Amino acid sequence: MRAPHIQTARATPQTGQHAHADDSAQTALEALLLAALNLAQSLDAGQHGRRRSGAGDNFWQFRPYHQGEPASAIDWRQSARSTTDNTFWVREREQDTPHHLALWCDPSASMAWRSHPTLPTKAERAHLCALALAGAALKGGERVTPLTGHATGRSYSSHTALPHIASTLLTTTPQSTLPDVHTAPHGAALLIISDFLWDETQFKHWCDEHAHSAGRLAFLCILDPAEQHLQEQGRIRFESLEGGSLTLPALESLSHTYHHMMTAHLTTLQHHATALRAPFILHKTDENPLPALLALHSALEGRP
């Protein structure tokens, strides 16, 4: 169950405002694309063929052997020369085929929340991060496949396709659902973006189902700062964007308990992600997204 949020008043659209709404949507789309492209330029996308692990012919690097890999992957000559005790080394080759990135942005209604008008909603930040990584991938000659919206499962390969991907993300119908990645191309790197206010058992079950996925996997957890640290005081009525409400007195008395439970929740999700060797990166909407994007970019590229 998702966390409830503070109730806010919403204006009702009036007749005759449709044209203005269309203009506002177009302006928002253009601003989103500009911001995403600026971030993409900072991600060291480079050209296709940049050095990453893959099934190519050119040597890239040696890396430590991971438990569960076949013994045939070990470079025994390099391992014998190693100065590190009890360490086996694997020879990695540079990928020479197009990389594929699949993106899933949580379409749940709770993502459309922010605690203050100066902050972006979680959905807005999720779209920005997804498009920045998509822009970097497309610029590098890779393919990108959105897993939410009207173009779910469609692959894009041109750098001019970013507006179409953005339109797909922005027109997704709000719904509470776990990621369906069956339409992702086989072997694609998979990025899951959400607030991850999921039931921990559901998250573990999803991870177990995808434990043998062929591609790399990464999680980006986007939270509003008010969701990580409860700072409200007094009697507060919370109303969930997905239905239901809750009124709590003396909210300040729950601050410590709430923080402890949220920390424990995130730690549990981190544990399940680590079991898949997938990074679980936390980002708050009052922070610069670039550090989180750089970490994701490196992880999805297979770089240390």
What does this structure look like?
The protein is α/β, with parallel strands linked by helices and 304 residues long. The chain has two domains: 22-48 and 98-301, Rossmann fold, CATH 3.40.50; 53-94, no CATH class. The chain is 34% helix and 18% strand. The protein is built from eight helices and nine strands. The chain has helices spanning 18-40, 76-81, 122-139, 162-170, 200-209, 225-228, 255-275, 290-301; strands at residues 53-64, 89-94, 100-105, 143-146, 189-194, 217-223, 236-239, 245-248, 280-284. It has a five-stranded parallel β-sheet. Strand 5 (189-194), helix 5 and strand 6 form a beta-alpha-beta unit. Helix 3 runs antiparallel to helix 4. It is globular, with a radius of gyration of 21 Å. The two termini are 35 Å apart. 29% of the residues are buried. Residues 3-15, 45-51 and 53-57 have low confidence and may be disordered.
Major β-sheet profile:
5 strands, parallel
Structural class call reads alpha/beta
Count of structural domains:
2
Strand order of the largest sheet: 4-3-5-6-9
Helix content: 25-40%
Summed over residues and divided by their number, the pLDDT gives a mean of 79
SSE order in H/E notation? HEHEEHEHEHEHEEHEH
Oligomer: single chain
Rg, alpha carbons: 21 Å
Shape from CA axes?
Answer: globular
The helix tally amounts to 8
